[in-house]
Amino acid sequence: LAAGLSSIGVWREQLAAASAADSEEFNIDLLSLWHILLKRRWTIAASVAIVFVLGLIVSLMITPVYRASSSVQIDREMINVTDSSNPLTDLWMDPDYINTQYQNLQSRELASRVLTDIGYQNAKRFESVFKPSAMQQIKTWLKGGRKQELKGAEKQRAEKSAAIARVGTFMKGYSIEPIRNTRLVKIHYNSTDPAFAILSANSLAEAFQNRNLETRFETSNYAKAYLEDQLKQLKIRLEDSEAQLVRVAQKEQIVGSGAEDLGSLPEQNLGALNAALAKAKEDRIRAQSEWQQAQSSIGMVTFGETGSNSIIRSLQEKRSSLSAEYQNKLGTFKPAYPQMVQLKGQIDELDKQIAQEITSIKSAIRAEYESALQNENMIKAQVDLLMGEAIDLKGRSIQYNIYKREVDTNRQLYEATLQRYKEIGVAAGVGLNNILIVDKAVAAGKFRPNIPLNLAISLLLGLVAGVVLALLLEYLDDTLKSPDDVEKRLGLPVLGVIPKLAENVTLEAALADTRSGFSEAYRSVRTSLQFATSHGVPRTLLLTSASPGEGKSTASLALARNFSELGRRVLLIDADTRNPSLHKKMAIDNAIGLS
């Protein structure tokens, strides 16, 4: 653990040292940079002035370019007014749709169409607006003698290439600018001819609108031709399938009812008989119930319809009246009394009549029951017969139904295709164009050159070039300009820096003033020399320079006087054998010297 902590500590120290080194390496001395720029200010000013003048001259020499602008509105796809079931689809939110429209607006085909429409596909008219450059004129002049030699296919290829080149040149002049958060697109055209710029901008907008409408008509015509071909094929298929269905029906002796949802005739008859059978069963059950009730009735008990029979009711009422009279007289007369016997006979006669009526009613109920039962049995037998025929017909109708479904399918396809064909025919004449021209170009403004912008850019470029040039000159300047330069370039310590005397100050006056910076500087150099070696001031000092007039004589004389002030014995030797000057500064004769 101790070893690990120790290694971590060493690593952190190394990292801190590396960070410190990097910070020193990338440290920029802004003050020094400012001094450099201030020192080279005239270089920067000259660079700015030169670039500014060049920019002004170039801007004034450039041929003016004018810009005309028109605008179009690209709406969503319009709803088809002939098809109410077609929902409105907002294709504006589809980036593929709007980007496709932008590309169509900048297509070569549209540019070629506009150039042809406005009549500038002709070479002479085209060159009247798009004047060839000097290089192009030279090339044309060099090839002028060979143009007449081109014949046939070569001439056609040359003309086609020239036409393509004219379209490419025309396309360089225009651009589009979609306006954010709107459906508007501006069409700009730049040209040296303002009238041509206006004409081109408006023609591009109109050609784009017309091309969109023509595309719709072409699509409708193609769909119409395609549907016509499909209708012919579907009609033939429908006729063939209907003929085959008739042949199968004749072969199997199948007769339809004419109603598609009712089935065949045996099926319809079977359905009707089933309904009649159900009704017959209901009647038979009711008649059987009445007959069973009639059979279970005893004596004078009313049953079924007897309770509502007026004859039986009147007979019963009459019998009741006679029975009541008989009972009343029975208390007075004996049964053998003639009047009582007569009443008894009348009552018995009434009973006989009532019994006869009941018997007649029972016979009628039984006859009704038997008739209902017979009717039910007959209908049931007919149902069984028709059921067999229907099952047999089902077996023979399998192939017939297959062909019938094929006929129905072909008929539906034919009718749907015919309906769509009619809709397209109507829609081709009422379709709406979703490309609208909002503004046409009415004037062309000067677009290039933008002299204020060019001059501002020239100022900026001149300033940047001046700064770069100043830094480059400073980097290439290897003269010694500071004590630090001496130490870095020569690797020698600096003993001191002596200020330059003003022109009106003599050496004697400067040295005589002990408080002056000049005197203080030489005293500082003297002190530095006293600590230059381990034994103090060197016994011999040599002062030299790379060129004359740098102050060797002045410095040697000032140091000699400074050391003599300390009580040292100093020998001053003027070793300049070409142009000695110490004797002049000391005002002595030069008869004795180094030579």
Task: Return the structural class.
Answer: mainly alpha
Q: Please give the radius of gyration in angstroms.
A: 66 Å
Overall number of strands = 5
The topology string of helices and strands comes to: HHHEHHHHHEEHHHHHEEHHHHHH
> N-to-C terminal Cα separation, in Å?
79 Å
Shape: elongated
Mean pLDDT over the full residue set = 76
Content of β-strand? 5-15%
Would you kindly provide a brief summary of this structure?
The protein is mainly α.
Describe this structure in words.
The chain is 66% helix and 5% strand. The protein is mainly alpha-helical and 595 residues long. Strand 2 (174-178) and strand 3 form a beta hairpin. Helix 9 (194-252) packs antiparallel against helix 13 and helix 10 packs antiparallel against helix 12. It is elongated, with a radius of gyration of 66 Å.
Supply the key terms:
mainly alpha, 5-stranded antiparallel beta sheet, 19 helices, 5 strands, 66% helix
How do the helices and strands line up, and which of them pair or pack?
Layout: H1 2-25, H2 30-39, H3 41-61, E1 65-74, H4 95-105, H5 108-117, H6 123-129, H7 134-143, H8 152-171, E2 174-178, E3 184-191, H9 194-252, H10 265-296, H11 310-330, H12 338-396, H13 398-430, E4 435-439, E5 445-448, H14 451-476, H15 483-490, H16 507-512, H17 517-530, H18 552-565, H19 582-586
Helix pairs in contact: 3-14, 5-8, 5-9, 9-13, 10-12, 11-12, 17-18
